[in-house]
Amino acid sequence: MTPAEAQLAEAAARQVSRVPFEDNGFGLCPHCNCAGHYVNVHRAQWFFCAVCRTRWRAGENLFSSWRDELTAGGAKELWAANAAMLELCENVEPVIPPSPPSPPPAEEEHGTR
Predict the structure, then answer these.
(1) Alpha carbon distance 8, 79 (integer Å)
(2) In a structure prediction context, what are the per-residue pLDDT tens digits for the chain, which is 113 residues long?
């Protein structure tokens, strides 16, 4: 088992979270509707479902964790390992849940100013 395969297997073993469909703005696995995990590759944040072996790019500089990895040292090695692990996953278009409806505006109380 390669290090990338081991990383993916470890993530699959931990993957138990099921974020409510409407509470995820970064997308869900199109096969199982799981929010999965995310990793950084430089400034880019990638979400992946380790069980289905799917991945999708959420964007760049969305979370500050990539900066933390950079200042902690070993970021280049970590990002290379993350990139190798993501290569084992199929690039997919995530399921983007619809935005929940906005609550109705609160009615002003009469007689208060």
Answers:
(1) 14
(2) 888 888 888 877 776 555 545 556 788 899 988 888 899 999 999 999 999 999 999 999 998 989 998 888 888 999 999 999 999 999 999 998 776 667 777 766 555 55
Tokens at 56, concatenated:
């999708």
CA distance 14 to 102: 34
Which sequence spans correspond to the domains of the chain?
Answer: 3-91
42 half-sphere exposure, CB direction, 13 A CA radius: 4
The pTM score is: 0.75
Range list of β-strands (E), 61-110: 90-91
CB contact at 8 A, 41 and 65: no
DSSP H helices, the chain, are 3-14, 65-72, 75-87
Partners of 56 in the beta sheet? 47
